[in-house]
Amino acid sequence: MPQPLLVPAKGDAFDFNLHVVYLWTATNMTFDGLRLRAEALLPWAMGIVRERAVDLAREHEPHRSHDLERALNDLLMHQRWPQEAHLPQFTVRLRVSPDERVREWLRPYWEQRIALECEHELEKIRTRQADDLTRRWAAVLQNLQDEPVTAYAARLTGAEFAEVFQRYVTERRDIVPKLVELLREAVKGHGDLGLGPSEYTQAWDIALRTYERQQGLTRQSM
């Protein structure tokens, strides 16, 4: 297999390595005859490729080997040498790699980039899991508050959880009497104005009775 061709990168301090695949074709020639002619013409073919690649390579910085690879293949892939149709002709495909010294300097950059991208993906996973866990616990707490059976079952999950949940329920229930009193005052105050059993006062009264039943409170005469 031919050795890589060396062409200078921008600044001439480093080289690109051109790994070239030569595709030979011919008419009216046996396979063995084509192989012998291709081997004889290979140094000339390598010179053709290097000559075409040098100027373009010098336009690319030493760490831009992928960009050079695309540019060279775009330039050379549709060309054929030599022009004489009765002679064996070749086309090329290239792969470009950077100077080994450049590869060593690029390694820490890619190691850090890979680590950062992996950490970023882990953070996204943690965020999704935390969000899912929060939603699940919100549903659990709501069920424990609404269902007496599950509220008692919460005691079986551990003393610490039972204590936290009890504080949560107590704080929620502390608000209930204040809200009920506010509703009662609204209904009573509206009646004091002598407006009669309007749709407004009836709606508030129904809302108050419903809320009291849900919270297990006894309606007192007003």
TrEMBL record:
Species the sequence originates in: Micromonospora maris
Full protein name: Uncharacterized protein
